[in-house]
């Protein structure tokens, strides 16, 4: 599938704001892919489709977790986590994307994972630092992204966990595992 076809499928799934974010992730991820050596075509597809399920009804996403035997613990950490694994499932089913590396990058783009591939790290990081993101600390992560992929991913997951704790939200266990795994990777 080429870029224009992919964008045409994704656009009606998203708000204008989220579509602009997706274009930002696309641009940033291709820069990171070039620098750190991820396949540009896989990067393009993963970036374009990463938030495909963002606006699906929560109940539909919860039902897919149950029906498709996705990890049950996804149901107990708020609803924001669901769009990544459910998105990977729907992108395969509805858009016919069957490249497992691309689907993995979509699946793990919110929580990260232990031992992420370069492509998974590129999408995880691009989602955090794309030009339309404005949260505190993002500029430091942007600077690190030019120097060290793993250190930049670590800063992103650390910031996210700190943010969630300040918001009195639960931390998904895989987010903690991502943090711990990257701590080992950077040393
Ligand atoms: O979909 P985006 O907004 O582009 O970004 P994202 O897929 O990284 O999702 C970010 C959201 O996910 C944000 O609202 C925080 C939430 N989130 C990320 N990690 C965790 C989490 N929520 C909980 N409860 N626990 C987590 O570990
Ligand atoms: Fe997302
Ligand atoms: Fe993210
Ligand atoms: Fe996103």
Automatic annotation (TrEMBL):
<protein>
    <recommendedName>
        <fullName>bis(5'-nucleosyl)-tetraphosphatase (symmetrical)</fullName>
        <ecNumber>3.6.1.41</ecNumber>
    </recommendedName>
</protein>
<keyword id="KW-0479">Metal-binding</keyword>
<feature type="domain" description="HD">
    <location>
        <begin position="18"/>
        <end position="132"/>
    </location>
</feature>
<dbReference type="Pfam" id="PF01966">
    <property type="entry name" value="HD"/>
</dbReference>
<dbReference type="InterPro" id="IPR051094">
    <property type="entry name" value="Diverse_Catalytic_Enzymes"/>
</dbReference>
<dbReference type="GO" id="GO:0016787">
    <property type="term" value="F:hydrolase activity"/>
</dbReference>
<keyword id="KW-0378">Hydrolase</keyword>
<dbReference type="InterPro" id="IPR005249">
    <property type="entry name" value="YqeK"/>
</dbReference>
<dbReference type="InterPro" id="IPR003607">
    <property type="entry name" value="HD/PDEase_dom"/>
</dbReference>
<keyword id="KW-0547">Nucleotide-binding</keyword>
<dbReference type="InterPro" id="IPR006674">
    <property type="entry name" value="HD_domain"/>
</dbReference>
<keyword id="KW-0408">Iron</keyword>
């Amino acid at each position: 599938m080429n870029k224009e076809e992919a964008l045409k499928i994704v656009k009606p799934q998203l708000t204008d704001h989220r579509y602009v974010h997706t274009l930002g992730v696309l641009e940033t991820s291709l820069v990171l892919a070039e620098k750190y050596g991820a396949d540009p075509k896989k990067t393009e597809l993963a970036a374009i489709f990463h938030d495909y399920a963002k606006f699906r009804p929560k109940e539909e996403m919860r039902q897919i977790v149950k029906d498709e035997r996705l990890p049950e613990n996804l149901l107990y950490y708020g609803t924001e986590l669901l769009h990544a694994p459910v998105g990977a499932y729907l992108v395969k089913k509805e858009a016919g994307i069957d490249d497992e590396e691309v689907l993995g990058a979509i699946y793990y783009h919110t929580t990260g994972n232990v031992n992420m591939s370069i492509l998974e790290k590129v999408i995880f990081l691009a989602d955090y630092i794309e030009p339309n993101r404005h949260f505190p600390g993002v500029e430091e992560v942007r600077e690190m992204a030019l120097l060290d992929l793993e250190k930049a991913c670590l800063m992103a997951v650390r910031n996210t966990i700190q943010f969630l704790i300040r918001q009195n939200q639960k931390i998904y266990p895989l987010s903690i595992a991502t943090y711990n795994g990257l701590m080992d990777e950077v040393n």
